[in-house]
Amino acid sequence: xxxxxxxxxxxxxxxxxxxxxxxxxxxxxxxxxxxxxxxxxxxxxxxxxxxxxxxxxxxxxxxxxxxxxxxxxxxxxxxxxxxxxxxxxxxxxxxxxxxxxxxxxxxxxxxxxxxxxxxxxxxxxxxxxxxxxxxxxxxxxxxxxxxxxxxxxxxxxxxxxxxxxxxxxxxxxxxxxxxxxxxxxxxxxxxxxxxxxxxxxxxxxxxxxxxxxxxxxxxxxxxxxxxxxxxxxxxxxxxxxxxxxxxxxxxxxxxxxxxxxxxxxxxxxxxxxxxxxxxxxxxxxxxxxxxxxxxxxxxxxxxxxxxxxxxxxxxxxxxxxxxxxxxxxxxxxxxxxxxxxxxxxxxxxxxxxxxxxx
Length: 358
Hints:
The protein contains 6 helices and 20 strands. By secondary structure, it is an alpha+beta fold. It has a domain at about 120-355. An 8-stranded antiparallel beta sheet has the order 1-2-3-16-15-17-13-14, with helices on one face. It starts with a helix and ends with a strand.
């Protein structure tokens, strides 16, 4: 058989490759494995060392952060404890400062209160403190009302039946306004069956019948926008406006100025000599003092003289004092009842009342 050139080449290649093909088949059948040392792959070893080093550094960093956080937490805790302790100390200092600041007031208040006696009754709230005292003297009995105003809402003046020319008893006015205390205020004049306040009268900062210059022994007395008692003789509206009156009424005469007796007009010394009286005064700390004196009649046989009122007011430590309408008008209401004994035998309707609220 004659072989072509192509077939001769194929046979030669097969014979040449046969040993290698057999070796591969044997290796596959034997399942041999070959392990190379790490040194055969130097780049891999470097990578492993690098990873191990980074892990160590990361762990160390986390430990340091944890330690720092714990230290910070302890520091914050100490700071908070120090802050709270400082806050308590500051509160104690503030409380002590307030107590020390109020101490002169409390000392002064105890001193003037002792001069009047022991309160028979007291009403106190956030806006007012009203203390009622009994007065006993040779020719008369009466009552003192000491009032500390803590708010502009604690006191006002009202008109009888809330109208100019109207009149009602102090008890009726106090009940209608739900006041804790009340006293008759200024003088009045009757005209045509109506009862009008005397002379200059101020209601809620406004002049009821215009301003009237003080004449003879008339004065104006009331409260200003700082809860201070103001009063005296005023020759012009501008003069009174400078006092910023909130409310007030007029009557006669002035009893004390700066703690000193003021001259009592001759007419008022004898007409009548003794009578039921009402007076309003103030203290250095702007507390108010109201005296209401009883008398069995207005014929001069009982009640107080105006000089005796001056002596009482000065003895009680008052600074400025003003005589209000007296006689049958003198009425003191406290805690829903009339505590004095009006000389008319019944309550007299009057046009103006000072009321106090809790």
